[in-house]
Amino acid sequence: MAKQGRRPRIGIRGKLLAFLGAAILAILALELLAQSATRKVSAEYETYLSHYHLVHRMRISLGEFRATVERYLREPASIAPEGLYESLAALSVLCQELQPLGELSVDAGFETAATAYGMDAYRPLVSRSVSFRASGRSDYYADFAKSERIAGYMDSYLSKLLGILMRQGGARFEAASRRSASLARAIFFGMALAAILLLGYVYLVSNSITRPIRSLAAASEKLARGELDLGAEPIRSRDEVGILAERFYAMSASIGAYVKSLEEKADLEKKLREEETSLLAMGKALREAQFMNLQDQIRPHFLFNALNSIARTALLEGARTTEALTISLAKLLRATMKEGGAFVPLSEEIDIVREYLGFQKARFGSRLDWEIEAEASLGRMKIPRFLLQPLVENAVRHGIEPKEEGGTVKVVVRRRGSKLKAYVLDTGVGMDPLVLGRLRSSFLQGVESVEEKSEARLSGSSGIGMANLASRLGLLYGSSSSMGVVSYRGKGSLVWISLPLDEA
Predict the structure, then answer these.
(1) 380 φ, ψ to 5°?
(2) Which helix (H) or strand (E) element contains residue 488?
């Protein structure tokens, strides 16, 4: 059952979905607003264009009808009168369609009304003229002449109406264009504001995710160095990473309590040994029981099991990155505490280097890039334990970490004839010429001749420095192995190792 009064937990997935939803809604809203404005301007333009086409069609139809009537009056046999009557009826219908245009303005109303009055007067005159001509009467021309005068008036009315529509349509379209431009600017500023708000939200979400991870990485480094008293930093986020960080600090506190209790029990055991002269039998039995109890508690598997529990919790909660980091930490701890001979397969050493670089990548982020190139055929080749990991750790800690913009670490293992060549390259801050000279001297001698101050700077967190590594190679291979370094201030360093394949 959930604890009463606890804030509801919003996971990483929920934060990302909220961001994507807000971004999609903002884009859709602005897109719909822009489309609505465009449709309004387009509809208004199409309306005025249709008005113009209607008036223009009326004017063309009137002109064609007048020419047809005139041809019929000259040559009655060329056209049937019924066709003229149908064209006149269609012209009248077209004139009726013009009447709604009178509502656009006072001037347009006057011209449409005058056109309608003209059509009412034109229709009977031209009909009577055609009828007289069809019946063979000679007085048809008087009505035709009157109808032509009226048709001329109608044509002038239509021409004025076209001009009015052109002026009004141009003014309306210009106003709509200005509104559209204003709306476009408003949409642009709205998109800019939405982008700023979304970027702010992204910053807050990413910071809430990465801040606990950075804190967890720093605490993990302290734990790797044996510092069990990490303290408990306040965890504000309630997502998967926050829960993981909270459990990690609880685990470190539990481990510290265990170690403290072991120290207290060790002191008690010492006191019991001082009293064993008087209570030898009872003291011996008591010490054996205490020793067995201590032996059950001081097991490295407790730490590995705790890390595996965290990894499983991260897997169930969907925190893939946290799961991978926890597993990497467990592998690194297991590798440093693993018992075995002086040699390990190259593939196992490469795996340790890969886990270490992957863990440091989570710490440094974009400041650290890394790459490993190793021939697959060399995977089973035996090499000295901790041959590559100290070199990579020195490259990260003393080359990349002090450099503000970060850099790249590259590990290359190749077969060169009868030799195994290993290169560790970093694009970090490089070395001072004095330190570089002393280091090269120690490589040539095969002993730790570098001063303590320089050795401390060249040692990794495991305590295995590069000069120490040169001494080990000299003891294992003698003159068959070699080790060198090249470094430039501000550009980086390259360390290389050569081993005989037949003895590796």
Answers:
(1) -90, 0
(2) strand 482-488
Rounded Cα distance, 153 and 32, in Å: 48
pLDDT in tens, 423-439: 999 999 998 888 888 88
**Which one-letter amino acid corresponds to residue 360?**
Q
Neighbours of 387 (CB within 10 A): 23
In the numeric block, which tokens belong to residue 71?
């041809």
Residue type, 41: V
Per-residue HEC secondary structure of 338-365 comes to CCCCCEEEHHHHHHHHHHHHHHHHHHHH
> What tokens does 380 get?
């089973």
* Strand 407-416, strand 368-374: pairing: parallel
pLDDT tens-digit map of 289-326 = 344 344 443 345 445 555 666 666 666 666 666 766 67
* pTM for the model: 0.38
CB within 8 A of 356, min separation 6: which ones?
Answer: 328, 332, 389, 392, 393
What number of other Cβ atoms are within 10 A of residue 124's Cβ? 11
**146-to-116, 125, 132, 153, 188 alpha-carbon distances in Å:** 17, 7, 14, 11, 62
Report the DSSP beta bridge partners of residue 14.
Answer: none
Q: How, if at all, do strands 492-500 and 482-488 pair?
A: antiparallel
CB 374 within 8 A of CB 350: yes
Tokens read off for 98: 């013009």
Contacts 24+ apart (CB under 8 A), 187-194: 187/30, 187/33, 187/34, 190/30, 191/26, 191/30, 194/26, 194/30
